[in-house]
Write the structure tokens for this entry.
Amino acid sequence: ARVCHTGAILLPGTQGARARASPASDMLLGRLAAVGRRVATQPTRFAGVRNAAQVASPKPLSFRMDGLMAQCLVAALIYFVPQDAVFLAGLFYKWHTDATSIAPKKRQSDADAALEEFKAKKGLGDVKVEKGRSTWYVSM
């Protein structure tokens, strides 16, 4: 018998580093394989228990503020929010001026007289009037 460079004992009649296994080691390997097959086929007691986090939607489980995504988000907000605010302020101002030029507000000292004048001007007889705190709504 010889000892190879890996420390395995080489028996006579074997080639290279492949030594012949003893019958005892074959029996041990067979027992281990049988136990492995039996364990793999048996259901575990805790089959329904999961220790993973329950995610309701696709979102990261952790969000670090020093990460690239957070830094890009902050930079985009700093760059785009001011110009969006200027654009939206102009858009809302235009909508407001268009609406007030179409139906301007006019304060009436006598609301009942103004309503009767409106009905006579439009040729309406029976209208439904909803009186609010400072605004009246007329519908037909």
